[in-house]
Amino acid sequence: MTVEPLSAAPSAPSPAPEEAPPTPAPAWLDLLVAAGVRALTVLLVLLAVVLAWGAIVVVSGGELGAAAVAVARAGLLRPDSLAAVASGAAPLLLAGLAAAIALRAGLVNLGVTGQALAGALAAAVVAQRVPGPAVLLVPLALLAGMGAGLAWALLPALLRVWRGVPELLTTVLASYLAVALVAALPAAAEPLAVRPAATIGDLAVPLARLAPGATWPALLTWTVPAALVVLLACAFMLRCTRAGLRFRVLAARSRAAQLSGARPGLTAIAALLLSGAVAGLAALQDVLGRGTPVGGGLGQTAPLALAHLPDYGLLALAVALAGRASGLGMIAAALALALLDRAGLAVGHVAGLPGGWVAIPQAVLVVAAVAAAGVARGLTARWESVQRRRPAAARQAAESAESPPSEPRRCRRPRCCTWRCSRRCCASGPVWSTSDWRGSCWRGRGSARWPRPASARWRGSASACSPVPDSRCCTR
Predict the structure, then answer these.
(1) Fewest CB atoms within 10 Å of the CB: 220, 250, 278, 332?
(2) What phi and psi values does residue 431 have, to the nearest 5 degrees?
(3) What are the phi and psi torsion angles at 83 (to 5°)?
(4) CA-CA distances (angstroms) from residue 106 to 74, 166, 324?
(5) SS3 200
(6) Cα(85)–Cα(336) distance, integer angstroms
């Protein structure tokens, strides 16, 4: 009997040599592009505000030259002017922060006006009725304002979770209710008589050693460092704590919040309550201050009557939108709005404009900031797409210079490898692989029919497609 020799086992195909990745763009070039986009955004906003201001002066019958001279002589960039602008911007920053906290959780708090009124009323009552030194009264007034703002946001939050009523509607109705209740009070038309121990003082004494003989520390109030502290605390909470992560997950998708173990209802309630507590601090300087600029008020100084407080609801949305709900952006937006208030005094007297005309440049500022942010996102996306196309173009050029492709692979197990053994498995784009036989070869981010599993691992570019995952079911 003749014994036939055994044929040698087919050898596994040798992996294709990996190509050296193309040299990416240097880091300084990315920084330069980002700085250029930011500078272009600022220039577009400034140009829009200047054009709007000039158009208003021309339409009102004034002279552009006289208005420009009045702005130059006003000394808007002097230390005293900047200190007054910072004091006027602090309430705007608190109001914008209240709106930004809700936006970070995917909610819209349009009731900042009512929550600020409730906080101002509670703080004024504590400052009038509770005896004690300033060291005790000022913290109690702050806590009372936060508690009143939180309580005013409680009912909209509960209606949002229990009954599904949109918070846009309930917060606006709550603001109208607060305005009506404050207008019905007998003492709402006049500034409240607050004892000197409960007033919000200035920083003249703490900054006396830093700037001896200067007058600008007397124009800075304690609201400025308090607003910065609240901003830093909220930024830390949103970025570095589990509650902030739940806020961001809720803003992305409610279903994802449920899968991550968070309760969307409780997360939404916490976000609205925190937003209301911060909004309760916005109007405290207007009620408890003495001779300090009023946030959002043209040429007005504290104290103000409760019925004459600015509309912090609109100002909060303006600061949050113009600042893109980020910390530095909202600081810049609040300072810009307060600086426009101060510049309006200088131009208004020269051009004979009414007191509320400065609201038009402020609205143009907000709209221009939102539009410029869209332009910046488009330019950034364009630059990133160019950077992504550079490696793809280099890879395609290298593949075209190589020899023609070999014979396509055949499937050993047609039942499980029909799709995975196709040429698409190693087509252009990143290749994913996992230990699961049902997902041994994945291209890109997957598709609706073949999604990429969570346990997938990166295996390199398509040009370096390894035959290891295919050797279990595919052959040549």
Answers:
(1) 332
(2) -115, 130
(3) -65, -40
(4) 42, 12, 14
(5) strand
(6) 9
Task: Please say whether the dihedral angle defined by the alpha carbons of residues 85, 88, 94 and 95, taken in this order, is positive or negative.
Answer: negative
Q: Are 440 and 433 in contact (CB under 8 A)?
A: yes
Coil, strand or helix: which one is 214?
coil
- Residue 307 CA to residue 124 CA, distance in Å, equals 13
**Could you give the CA distance from residue 35 to residue 249 in angstroms, rounded to a whole number?**
30
d(CA 218, CA 446): 62
Q: Which of 286, 288, 281 is nearest to 116 (CA)?
A: 281
Residue 325 confidence (pLDDT):
87
DSSP code at position 76: T
With tokens 């409730």, the residue in question is 118
Two structure tokens written together for 387: 């950077």
d(CA 468, CA 462): 14
Tokens of 27: 């880091």
In whole angstroms, give the CA distance from residue 100 to residue 78.
31
Six-digit token string for 37: 């986009």
Q: Give the torsion sign (CA, 254, 445, 382, 21).
A: positive
- Please tell me the predicted confidence (pLDDT) of residue 437: 34
Q: Is 99 helix (H, G, I), strand (E, B) or coil?
A: helix
Half-sphere exposure of 342 (CA within 13 A, CB side): 26
Q: How confident is the model at residue 392 (pLDDT cuts 50, 70, 90)?
A: low
| pLDDT for 398 | 52
Q: Which residue has the tokens 């930024």?
A: 235
First to last CA, the chain: 34
**Maximal CA-CA distance, the chain:** 120
Could you give the residue ranges of the DSSP H alpha helices within 130-222? 134-162, 167-184
Rounded Cα distance between 26 and 33, Å, is: 11
Integer Cα distance of 416 and 414 in angstroms: 6
What is the residue type of 407?
E
Domains of the chain: 63-351 (1.10.3470), 410-475 (no CATH)
Sole residue written with tokens 């960039």: 77
Q: CB-based contacts of 339: which residues, under 8 Å, 6+ apart?
A: 76, 85
What pTM does this model have?
Answer: 0.74
